[in-house]
Amino acid sequence: MPQTSSLGEVTSHDVQVFSPEDPLTLQRGGSLDEVHVRYETYGNLNAARDNAIFIAHALTGDAHSAGFHPGARKPGWWDTMIGPGKPVDTNRFFVITPNILGGCQGTTGPASVNPVTGQSYGLDFPVLDMGDFVTVHRRLMSHLGITKLLATMGGSLGGMQVLQWALSYPQDMTSAVIIAASSRLTAQNIAFSAVAREAIMRDKGFADGHYVEQGTTASTGMSIARMMAHITYLSEDAFAEKFGREPQSSGLSHGFGADFAVESYLRHQAETFLDRFDALSYIYLSRVMDYFDPFADPDSCTLIGQHPMHVLLASFSSDWRFSPAHSQRILGHLVRAGVPTTYKEVASDMGHDSFLMAIPDYLDTVAAFLERRAS
Is the pTM of this model over 0.90? Predict the structure, then answer.
């Protein structure tokens, strides 16, 4: 049976936010003549236009964060958080949730058609920066007629974008919610992403980024990348509780197939991933995360210190990909800048993916923070 969602059926929207007459100039050089954005909205914008909450998604997320698309069996990726009576209460808030620049779910990305050549950009797509995501989403806010957000929110890569936005344009928001995120990846994190990209780019089907025109896919590389990444999203305790050393069937074959339940699970994750995500987007977006290091600029907190706002930082005890130390580093910089900041380490055995889970203490913390900001 399909899972239920109190938000119900939702629809997606598309808008062009940059054009040849008004191109997007990118942080690391180059430009894009056309940028289209896919987004969804939930709830209603009030007369004062001050109840809007912006949702930024993680690496492999999309604009569909809550509710159901027609015919879909699963709700949006943050349905635990967004909807009537939930922490991001759509009875009170107007929620905007777009697909990120460089993505593959309706927003312009490297697999999109280059209007100059008539073919996909491939590896000719420019290298992106976290600030480019912010620029595009600020333009979306302008399109929607919203000059100030009640809150910006995101987990993982989404939280990193929220941090960049808060540092660069604190006047755009009253508050920010940054969950299971980082201000600077560790060498281990960069290494995981490097191996994933290598698996994709060494796949013959990748065809040097021209797989769209050649009709091939980097399915083997993408499968390996997804399986490895998924291991890092869960804790050892979560794997032990879900799978242990249980065999997939009645006994072990002592061969090289998927003998253990955990192996079958990872294969399933890889197969479903191939149906919804693009190899080039994985390469480009993961690289943005590698380069992100906003506090390397000694003046990074100048603006946020001059425009008072409130920040909620949340981490999870078993998250070893973006451990609590990552959030605590952000906390230190914000506190030294005089930014009112609340920090919560949530007890969870589910690892990095905890930010997507229905953990009462976590959801209650977010709900209470937004309630204070809205009152």
Answer: yes
Shared domain for 37 and 160, answered yes or no, is: yes
- Dump pLDDT digits (tens) for 273-298: 998 999 999 999 999 999 999 999 99
Is 1 inside a domain boundary? no
CA distance 251 to 244: 15
Both 133 and 58 in a single domain? yes
Whether the pLDDT of residue 187 is over 60: the answer is yes
3-state secondary structure of 335: helix
88 & 223 share domain: no
pLDDT for 263 equals: 86
- Residues serving a catalytic function are 156, 319, 352
Residue 170: domain span: 13-185+294-374
- DSSP-based three-state secondary structure for 302: helix
d(CA 269, CA 265): 6
pLDDT of residue 1: 31
In 3-state terms, what secondary structure has residue 91? Answer: coil
Q: Which H or E run contains 42?
A: strand 35-42
What's the CATH code of the domain at 277? 1.10.1740.110
